[in-house]
Structure formats: C-alpha cells, structure tokens
Please model this.
Amino acid sequence: MKPLDFDRLRWKESETVRSLLKKQNTLLGDSLESLDRLIYLQKSINLLSLQEIYKVMVEKLPFILSIQYFSFFIFDKNRRRLSLASHNHPDLEEGYSLYQNDSPIMKEAMASGRYIFEQDFSVSRYFRGRKNPLFSCNFFVTIPLMIENEIIGVLNLNDNENGLYNVGDLDFALNVSEFVALSISNAMLFERAEKLSITDGLTGLDNHQQMQTVLKNEVIRCKRYNSTLTVIIMDIDHFKQVNDTYGHQKGDEILLEFSTIMKKFCRSNDLAARYGGEEFFLVLPETPIGGALHIAERIREEMASQKFQSKGKDFHVTVSCGIAEFDTARMQSAADLIKVSDLALYKAKNEGRNRTIQGNADDLIDA
Model:
C-alpha cells in the first residue's frame, strides 16, 4: 500500500470513529435524567481495545442490566460463523464457536435485524425443551448488534432473580446494546488501523518498519541473555523478468504464494516480513544457524516445486536465501546482522541463484 493510500484510509477511519463517538455522546445526552447506569457503562466501555471492552462487559453488564447471564458472539460474515467473545456463563468453554445455521435464534435475529424476546425458555419454539448452554429456564433476549445496517455480533441475555423481564428492562437493554455495538465498532476500526500500520498491504506479512522494530528488540534481548538469534533474507530470482514476461498481476500472485509458504514454516515466535519489493525476511529467535538453514532450505525447495501458469504454459520460480546468526562478540547491532545476511544473499545470487548461503561475521571486515 502506498503511503498516500494508507494516509487516506487512516483519515477515513478516523472520521468514522469520530462520527460513531458523536452518536454515542448524543445517545448519552438523551439518557442523562433516567439512565444513570448507562452513564456508568459509558465511562467504563468507551475504550479502544476489544479485549478491554470484553472484560468490562463481564464486570458490568450483569449488574447494569439486572440479569444473571449474558453471552456475546462476534459474527464473521465471510465464514458465516459466530465466535464467543465475552460471557459469564460457567458452563461455556473459551473459544466456543458455531456456524450461523447451528443457532436458529441467533440466525433469525441477525436475518431480521430485530431482537427476539421470550419469557420462558422451556416452551420456546426455538428450543422446544432442549437444553442449551446459553440459557436456563427463565426469560431470554437475543439482540443483534449492528453498525450502519451491518451485523457485527449478537448479545444474549437471560435469567434474573425474578425470572421475568418487562418492557422497560428490554428498552434499557436495547439502549445498552447500542453503546456496546458502537464501542466494539470503534475498537475494531482502531485495531484495523493499527494492524495496517505494521502490515504489508499485499501479502499480509509484517512490513519493513515492523521488522526493523522487532529485530532491534530481539538483538537487545540476545545481547542481554546471550541467546541465539538468526535471520533469513530471501529474494525471488529474476522477478523483474517474471513481471516483464507474465505481467504484474502474475507477479503479485507469486508474491502471495511465497508469503503463504513463509507463513507455513513460521513458528509462533518467528516473524515473517516483506522486506521490500521481491525481498522477504524471517526473524528467528532462539534458533541456531543450523535450524535457520533447515527452514530456509524447506522454504526454498517448496517454492521451487510450485507450478505457475500463464497462457496455458507452466513455469517455475525460485528464490535465493542468505542466513546469518547474531555474533555477540563481533556484531554490535541489528544493522550488522542484516548486512551479513544480505552479503550472503548476494553470494547466493552470484553463485547461480536458487540456493542458500550462510553468512559470517568475518564478512563485515571484508565488506
């Protein structure tokens, strides 16, 4: 993504956030006289972190809404899946999710864009006496959370000491659900902008700036604790020729395929980044040079085995790799580590490409 395009996106999302916050404040102003609990929620939930919002929901919603249990599901419209994000049910497992079609009540609420309210779970047409971990034996309310006519999730409420929920309670719950929806939407936009600021727009890998930040921190940790740290720099061979021959769209396809291969061989603590153009970078904490060599070779071999097509003809693309391990005695900074790996990559290119070369701190003296 070009800097100008990114700035425009950040501006657009900032405007959206400001608009949503303005709507929140308007709603709050209309409720000041009679809804003290709404004010209490507003002060607590107007955050820009989804996890913090989910935590506040657990702490505040049962008291604010005078209910015993609630569950909130985030909706993934691409996968048509509902994932449990926040709840206080003792019998629900963290990470629980289900397809939209597996919950008739939530599916209908989302399809209609309207809440569903029934006083007795046991005679509900949605369950007909069947047990459900989301509800007990009293009333239940299912509220679709929407922003600009788009469903972002579903809020389920059930049970209290009286076992009843009246119209006033429901109206208040609907107002609260608006606050929750707006706050969650704000957080989603904020986190999306944060992710865009460190992510390459095409491949979804970390970008150059984020890679530099992470690598500098890893070098500091490596020097402090005398731990191992290796890096791999990879370059797609003859990429300009590929673009000139098959077109830039095919070139983007190749970049995406290579980024997928990198992710496949990345562990949880590794960082995969697009270094720039057709160059990619792996940061491998707690990995000796032998382990890095193994990873580089697996990536290189898998890429070479991939078959691409253009105008009915197959072709292959290879990569060259340079690897280096941080030498605490002879390297001072992340820049030294990058330089050694880059010099190794240069050797791999000069020696025929489609190979991995191991760099050495001695190369810094010769460079």
Q: What stands out?
A: The two ends are 33 Å apart (CA to CA). The chain has eleven helices and 13 strands. The CA atoms of residues 181 and 294 lie 47 Å apart.
